[in-house]
Amino acid sequence: MSLIFPPRQDSDSIKWQRFAGKDVLPLWIADSDFAAPLCVTEALQARISHGVFGYGETPQELSELIVERLWQRYDWRITADDIVYLPGLVTALHLAVQTLTQPNDAVFCPTPIYPPFRQAIKQHGRDGVFQDCHTVDGRWLPQLPSHAKAKDIRLAMVCNPLNPGGTVFRRDELLKLDALAKTNDWIVCSDEIHCDLLIDENARHIPYASLNDDAAQRAITLMAPSKTFNIAGLGCAFAVIQNPTLRRQIQQALEGLIPAVNILGFHAAIAAYRHGDDWLQQQLAFLRQQHQKVLDAVNALPGLSMLPNEATYLAWIDASQLNHPNPSRLFEQFGLGLSPGSAFGNRQFVRLNFACSDEVLDQALTRLRAAVGSLAN
Ligand SMILES: Cc1ncc(COP(=O)(O)O)c(C=O)c1O
């Protein structure tokens, strides 16, 4: 078994279409270039050959796999009833803000952050309490709001592992958030979509909701097989909501507005969770090599730096010392399509997706060097 990199240039990929017709390598959106595991393609082929695609039933089998997976991996005991399936987690970010807060409530969100967090807060007219992460011992960590601000907050929206930044929060760090949440009676929406993609072999993911019974009652945990197995286009994600009142609120908001997960998404998720772990280990070994290459290359260049990722295949690169007004535009001029840091809240950074083939990454790093070198001339 090995990772397969089908050509994506002429496919329907958003990632590759953005720069279609240009000599720009797309290392931006959080989408990997690996084919999904064979177990997933075979399950999809088997389902397609059935030939009938009427309304599907939510498969109990998937709920059982998720219950078992969360118990095995995190000692987190949930029941099948706690799971709410969704076609995507951006939907869940919006639902959390819209449904679980009132117009006068504030929402806490550590930044820089995956853009839909900020968009959800803005779109629903809530007051955002944004606090920039800072570095502590080589890791990006959120700064928690003061007690005065914390009182107006109703919802905390956190991303663990952190995107961008790649931090995997440790138990003591989560407990600090939990203490504040408890004192001020916050709901905590914890987006854990990247939890399987651990780059640091010593990092262990801890779901916020698994901390204690109180945290479980105030948490909405967002997870999906989409990043892990590169099946985001199939639209199968889920929220775990153990508090029945919060769950009912979200389910009512979904009703009639948000379509069910499609049958192919369910089949892919079942196959991935049942049979995909060997492939995942292989992917992780590969991503760790790619990460090391990026880390070494970036930190050897004058004007660029990055901290090691504990998780995610997204390098968060500090370009502030280049003293260039628009680093992502500079890199694009040299044939490298990165995510501009401005989208996440810091225009002096760029985000580089290293879930690509050796060939693409090597070429990308050559272009990165050329772009930086051009400033010295
Ligand atoms: C932190 C985070 N949450 C959610 C998503 C997207 O989720 P979905 O495709 O399920 O809407 C992404 C995609 O990059 C992400 O990084």
Could you please describe the fold and organization of this structure?
- There is one protein chain.
- The chain folds into two domains: 14-38 and 277-374, Aspartate Aminotransferase, domain 1 (Alpha-Beta Complex), CATH 3.90.1150.10; 52-275, Type I PLP-dependent aspartate aminotransferase-like (Major domain) (Aspartate Aminotransferase, domain 2, 3-Layer(aba) Sandwich).
- It has 14 helices and 14 strands.
- It has helices spanning 14-17, 38-50, 60-74, 89-100, 115-123, 147-150, 171-184, 213-218, 226-229, 244-254, 263-275, 277-299, 327-333, 358-376; strands at 25-27, 83-86, 106-111, 127-132, 134-136, 139-141, 153-159, 187-191, 219-223, 237-240, 305-306, 314-318, 336-340, 349-353.
- α12 runs parallel beside α14 (358-376).
- It is globular.
- The N and C termini lie far apart (46 Å).
- The structure holds pyridoxal-5'-phosphate.
- Pyridoxal-5'-phosphate binds next to α4.
Task: Summarize the model shown.
The chain is of the alpha/beta class and 377 residues long. 41% of the residues lie in helices and 17% in strands.
Give structural attributes.
Aspartate Aminotransferase, domain 1, binds pyridoxal-5'-phosphate, about 375 residues, about 15% strand, alpha/beta, Aspartate Aminotransferase, domain 2, seven-stranded mixed beta sheet
